[in-house]
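Appendix B. Chain record.
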Amino acid sequence: MRIVVTGARGMLGRTLATRLHEQGHTLHLAHTQSFNITDPHATHQAIQEAAPDVVIHPAAYTAVDKCETEVEKAFGVNAQGAGHIAIAAQRAGARLIAISTDYVFAGDAPNPYVETDRTEPRTIYGQSKLAGEAAIRTHCPDHIILRVAWLYGAGGPSFVHTMLKLGAIDGPLLKVVNDQHGNPTSCEAVANHIIQLLDIPTVGTFHLTSEGETTWYDFTKTIFALKKLRRGVEPCGTEQYPRPAPRPKNSRLDNRGLRMIGMPPMPHWQESLEIFLRKS
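Structure tokens predicted for this chain:
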């Protein structure tokens, strides 16, 4: 297939480019230097010239705290930019696979979120991504929206990379939040499932996170154990790390939609983490 990948210099974009190239697809790797998705004319022209079968759209403004003050930029990239991509993909006759986030939910539910649960974002980042989802549904009927969470991958930046750096140096006990729950998910696992979705003619919104759940504290303990890092870690509460954008206590996503279309399950987060750390 001929495939455009936006955000090709980002963590997920790089992984997608590598895996899609290995599969023999013809790639057009887009980034801010090649075209700016907030410019509708440039976006339309670039996608028309690439003549893709599929557009994969992970590009986003993901600085969650900065989004709280850079509201115009957040909506310009995550909402309007997604709309420009959707319109251009539709005009080119291309299928669109777009990446979204758990932040579209309130993050306070007692159970993992399924695709049909009410969206109620509490941050500017989440609001802008939800608006991007709406733009995609409006402008490109042939779409898949994939919500991911707690993502890490080769080259970072990610929580895993931060903890590896902190764990490798001497210092006082690290305090890590133990009351936020989620599904750590590797870019490799996401890319592998996207490759499978290329051959499945489905439309809709799906969750795509690794199986199993943990807290940031237990995630850190697992990272340190696998890499044999000896720095001490102690649990703490969210209130000890106040941030401009409130962090969800519950980022857990249930991949119910993928099960319903017969997709194989995502790997367990511990399995993916072990594979990733062996390569790191």
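Further analysis of this model is presented in Appendix C.
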